[in-house]
Amino acid sequence: MKTRRISAFFLTLVFCLSLLTGCGSPASSSSASSSGLQRYSTIFYDAFDTVTQVIAYCDSEEEFNAQMDALHKDLVTYHRLYDIYNDYEGVTNVKTINDNAGVAPVTVDDKILGMLELAQKMYDTTDGKLNIAMGSVLRIWHNYREAAEATETDADNTLPTQEELDAAAQHCDITNLIIDDAAKTVYLADPDMSLDVGSVGKGYAVEMAAQAAEARGLTSALISVGGNLRAIGTKPDGSPWVGGVENPWKASEVYTADTSTVAAVNMSDLALVTSGDYQRYFVVDGVRYHHLIDPATLWPAAYFNGVSVLSDDSGVADCLTTGLFCMPLEEGQAIVESLDGVEALWCTTDGEVVTSSGWDAYAKK
Description:
The relative contact order is 0.15. The protein is α+β, with helices and mostly antiparallel strands. Helix 3 crosses helix 7. It has helices spanning 61-82, 94-99, 110-125, 135-150, 162-169, 201-215, 314-325, 329-338, and strands at 2-4, 38-47, 50-58, 106-107, 177-180, 185-188, 221-225, 228-232, 241-246, 261-267, 271-276, 280-284, 287-290, 304-311, 342-348, 353-355. Strands 2-3-7-8-11-14-15-16 form an eight-stranded antiparallel beta sheet, with helices on one face. A three-stranded antiparallel beta sheet has the order 1-12-13, with helices on one face. It contains eight helices and 16 strands. Strand 2 (38-47) and strand 3 (50-58) form a beta hairpin.
């Protein structure tokens, strides 16, 4: 049996998950702010196979509904473009690129080009620990998790062999990802190669969707897409939004106001993204095998139980959580300290919480 966490972790000082209502409906505790803006919230489920939750302050319900309709449309568009499992009529997506590996370059949308170029950059930043070219290996682990979901008990679950993983790893060279910006094409030179953009796609999409919402006039919002938090501005009274880092050692199946946290941070025009071994996994012989695969071993990374990154870019934060999760603490600390505007929190396997040098500046007191 497989456990998969798809709920989003969403903390604010005046918000409880139990108060979420339908799109356009003010939360039951809402009231007009001194600026005249009204607080609204919404939730939807059809983007990136997870839960999207939004709190926003707008002049009217009509404005809020228009903003949420556009935000929802944007996220669904990105979801379809970055899908590696499904085809959509009239859509050329990452699956299309994979299907044409070794065959021909594929003309793609700028939304795909931008995401792939960020992933290439973050491959270098993380010394290869963030590698979207590992699709052949990640597909094996995906298939074993899917098989585990169909079993009656954990006793029926099985693991891939090292030989199986090693063979797939021969087709993970990111230099075989050929991007032609002028022609707007993507080509996989290795016919047995495939892309898996799960470590960047959602974060990049959240960032682009948030920027688009700001361009449409949204000035105060907190967006959560499967735990990827992105704050737009502050609350109308000037106070920051608050994001929480769930305690990986006391993770629950359903997020509530009582969910245990190890940290809370003040957020204004910032993103907070967390990767953890408690989010997607299956169990074999009492051992949890999660979805964050170390490129060095081809097995689930064993350095941490959770890693969170705070940055002004959700796509960068998404990439870094995966990369940092798959490397020793000292290496990750060196990378974070070398980057402007990036802070991180590590939950180690021995129960310790470690933060980067600037994390405390954002900590909610």
